[in-house]
Amino acid sequence: MLASTTALLSGLIFGLGLLLSGMGNPAKVQNFLDFSGQWDPSLALVMGGAIAIGLLAFTWAKTRSKALLGDLMQLPASQSIDKRLITGSAMFGVGWGLAGFCPGPALMNLATLQPEVWLFVAAMLVGMLAQHIWAAQR
Length: 138
Prior knowledge:
Helix content: 55-70%
Keywords: Membrane, Transmembrane, Transmembrane helix
Protein name: YeeE/YedE family protein
InterPro entries: DUF6691 (IPR046513)
Number of domains: 2
Distance between the termini: 36 Å
Order of helices and strands: HHHHHH
Strand content: under 5%
Pfam family, one: DUF6691
Shape: globular
Largest sheet: none
Organism: Comamonas resistens
Structural class: mainly alpha
Number of strands: 0
Radius of gyration: 17 Å
């Protein structure tokens, strides 16, 4: 029960952060990538803040054997940069740049009932399923 409540609260805080920062708006993301037009640097500030907090959290997590709720700490085992990582990152970046959504803001925007958001989430889920099937066959 504690894990579910913590997950719910974490999701709500994340969603609130997306709303307050404006990152749920796909135009904000696309304007960040538009260097020759209406460039909006605010996404860089949000990313910088997230990287700083993540760096502190991962540095602290490496010193622990258990997570705060008692489960075993599960940090990434591999630190290598390989073809799969680069390909996946590039696909994520292209999709994010074209649509203006990444998974968190896309799920948050389902509440707007806009058909393009639902289409994006459906395509994202199909892509995730296809990757899961492909990885299982390897």
